[in-house]
Write a structure and sequence with these properties.
By secondary structure, the chain is mostly helical. It has 10 helices and 2 strands, in the order H-H-H-E-E-H-H-H-H-H-H-H. It has a two-stranded antiparallel sheet with strand order 1-2. It starts with 5 loop residues before the first helix and ends with a helix.
């Protein structure tokens, strides 16, 4: 695998973190020189970092204009939800199998806390961004339980896509309540199913992903 020099890696991590932290906006063009000024490094390592970010589908490079956040396609949505189903389905079953361990007990409590905060935010008519953050928090807690660095890295690489898709999905009338119910069903399957072979937890994750995917595809078609 190609190795990257420190400046390339610094630029890559800097831009990626800005994307994941919501500091870059969709459909806005950014320039190499702008990033160079922020980091006080030359354009060459930035150009290399942008090429890598483009391969990882964080950004799209537009000749003579700069770069912008990656524009989601139908294939992106299908690939994202297929990958999420595999990752989170495994993590749900794994957590169910280990729910009585100290780490498992702590994780289940975190899931319940995310559920409670999401429900309260929905009932009180809180801002959509707060509801969305509790939604995404639930999924992150589930994946983090695995302590599998490869799975966590894959999940985190989808964060910017997840935020965009989930935000549009939750804007659909009635969707926040349904999303909460789907999260609760996942949680309930984890804590109450068979520890040896809890496929119900996997099925609940799969159902949630399919519902979210279909809404995202429908919104893309309308737009």
């Amino acid at each position: 695998m190609k190795s990257y020099q420190p400046l390339q890696e610094k630029a890559y991590e800097y831009i990626k973190n800005k994307i994941l932290n919501g500091e870059m906006e969709q459909n806005v063009f950014y320039s190499e020189s702008q990033i160079g000024r922020e980091l006080e490094i030359s354009r060459t390592p930035i150009k290399d970092a942008l090429g890598r970010l483009s391969q990882d589908r964080f950004i799209d490079i537009i000749p003579s204009k700069g770069f912008r956040l990656h524009t989601l396609s139908v294939d992106d949505i299908w690939a994202t939800y297929q990958s999420r189903s595999a990752i989170e389905g495994f993590c749900a079953v794994f957590l169910s199998q280990n729910r009585e361990s100290e780490h498992g007990t702590e994780t289940i409590e975190k899931l319940k806390n995310s559920l409670d905060k999401m429900k309260q935010a929905i009932d009180e008519g809180d801002e959509l961004t707060n509801i969305l953050n509790y939604d995404l928090e639930f999924h992150k807690v589930l994946v983090d339980f695995s302590e599998n660095h490869e799975l966590i890295a894959m999940f985190e690489s989808y964060n910017h896509r997840l935020y965009t898709i989930a935000k549009e999905s939750l804007e659909t009338p009635g969707r926040p309540d349904i999303a909460y119910k789907e999260h609760f069903d996942i949680y309930n399957a984890i804590v109450s199913g068979s520890k040896l072979n809890n496929m119900d937890a996997y099925q609940k994750v799969l159902h949630h992903m399919e519902m979210s995917r279909d809404i995202a595809l429908d919104l893309m078609q309308k737009n």
